[in-house]
């Protein structure tokens, strides 16, 4: 039942990646990769180690600048974009290795996610003057909604460094959500988690997609998770796209099976 | 308003909304902020829920299941059902779907209010088995957007219906409340039931309100008091201590943000009145101890010094007893500034006036810890069938060993079998649909048979010793309560398990299991070498250590004339730990006395035959599943017997 309605609401392409090639010196990370991500969709990028998955995310949010090809987000085609510009346009991400401020509380970490939306200057904020106060309350309300959504009320004031790994991952997702992104890039959100934590995280990802309408691009190694969560899957191998389609189509694809099981090239 | 008119819960609510419309009635932390509803607002919420239910076809006598964590709207839903002459049936929120099925069928549930998706899922699972269940309302819509079942509706939508209905029938709500009678059933609470299916305890408005009034008067609660609702709504304690008492006294209820945040919420609210089973107090203490171990050494030193002082004089100071020197009083005041005050603040106990514990025995160390830092922790005794409230410690008359004197209006009688019988306004009307069980529990004179064995001490305090069915008699007819003696032994850190024998025998004898960690540590500090459990258990020094414990228990037992005869005469320390794998303990670590008596019949005979030692060979199952044997020549030890204190004084 839920599947039909979810498919029903998937809209026009939000992100179009065209003919991207990226190399570090002589090492070719990506070679002529093209795919698109549609509005409200959960799009997975999979592939063996070193296939270029994380590089692809880094290209999308502007950390790497590809030698060839373009990325179009919300119809705006661009060659070079810086990460903060990408963030301002509505792209948020989480990292494979957690990148939070370990000494700061969960609440403060989530507030940093609102950074780009803060309009007051340092002086106003330091003195907590009229507009700064109003703004702070507004941001706090948004952050509290994220805390409620991710069910982390009990650790609101806990320094992130004291939290177990699974919860840190959830906080990182929270920080990305606090930015109210249109496109959320998740780099192995479930790596290193136990089964229960994976189930929780899967539920949150689906809820984000469903209730907030956020489009999600996801890199994940756990195949059962990928097949359950995603609407469409891109498969990379040695920097090339070898398959693209629904989970069922990809599962049956000969090139994919070869890439995963290993066939002499 | 005259008292006579406040005889149902909806009338109490109308009264509170009239007397103190703008005082906060209930609060809940949501999005990080405590949201408040006044009594007048609470009444409006109840009215719209009640009218909504009525518009949906809820009629007098219908039953409304309520399932979820403590939330304002769930309390209001119960009130809404009562306003319409219906009966709320709160369910345990952690029950799985299959467990819910029985109650849903037994109580003929047609309408249900669920907190969230998790509870809705469980109710939906039961739809086919419970054809009567036609309407399910939910509080939190999260995750329920795609549910297409026709039975589902949000409480928001229900309240909108209700406001619409109330607009067309403005007199409806007041007229429905007017139809309510004090003798109507106000709630059906299901007892967990260790054997067989749970039983629904039907309590009337009269019984609950009468009991709540007694409780409010007993500890002098007013509208200024504050309670945190964190115990399951399906439990009589929450219904009585939160719902009923706040409606009588007009004090505030506070609902935690989530079950995980209870400790933080406790600190923010600082309740003045608190109830918890012993394990809650134990968890709090454990957290304190862990954090103290991590603290810097000056803090650790201060904590140890002042806790030792508090242990010595704290309770006397709180109870206003004489005999505390000025120096100690000053030091205790300093300790209040440096340790007890901050500690209570961290635990959220700064403003506590009265705290209660009950349900099971609380360890003396735990009890004394709270009392010595100035938390007025008291014990009470009761069960769902009697609206709890059989007996309670009065402030200033606290004795750890007892559960206090019977409450005003409560008659307690001890049957010849030792069973505690209770007659009070709070005794339930009946078990729902179980006239057989009701007849069994309430006798012709109206006394409820509690199933617990107990007696009154010299000061008239009730003392509960065991389940009545486990209590036996010695050959000369004296009372023998094995679990009571075993628990007393187990309160010593050196003793892990104990098994007492004595039913229809001439004296009480016991098996003891030492606690390997505690006794091992004790032995190491004394440079006593040992190779393993059996070796440690047979050390003469260890035998003496355990003998001291047994004799302390004997001295305690001698203080009560009813138990003086059941002092332990002879005992032995077992050569192996009792283990669930060998069938000696249940999986919840309760001793299987009968099985142990059969298995170690040689040892039991030796205890009663006067031998001074006994050889035993036992099979035991190792962790990897192999079976081996252990053998030992166990010494049989004699313990000193004490005379009752009065007798000693006379001699």
Describe the structure.
The complex is a heterodimer of chains A (about 260) and B (about 650). Chain A is an alpha/beta fold and about 260 residues long. Chain A has 11 helices and 10 strands. Chain A has helices at about 1-10, 55-60, 85-90, 105-110, 120-125, 130-150, 165-180, 195-210, 225-230, 245-250, 255-260, and strands at about 15-25, 25-40, 40-45, 70-75, 75-80, 90-95, 185, 215-220, 230-235, 240-245. Chain A has a 6-stranded mixed sheet, with helices on both faces. In chain A, strands 2-1-4-5 form a 4-stranded antiparallel sheet, covered by helices on one side. In chain A, strand 9 (about 230-235) and strand 10 form a beta hairpin. Chain A is globular and about 60 Å long. Helix content of chain B is about 40%, strand content about 20%. Chain B is built from 22 helices and 29 strands. Chain B is globular and about 90 Å long. Residues about 645-650 of chain B have low confidence and may be disordered. Chain B is an alpha/beta fold and about 650 residues long. A 5-stranded parallel sheet of chain B has the order 4-3-5-6-7, sandwiched between helices.
Mean pLDDT of chain A: 88
Oligomeric state of the chains in view: heterodimer
Q: Let me know the largest β-sheet of chain B.
A: 5 strands, parallel
End-to-end separation of chain A in angstroms reads: 43 Å
Q: What percentage of residues of chain B falls in helices of 4 or more residues? A: 25-40%
Beta-strand portion of chain B reads 15-25%
Radius of gyration of chain B: 28 Å
| Derived structural class of chain B | alpha/beta
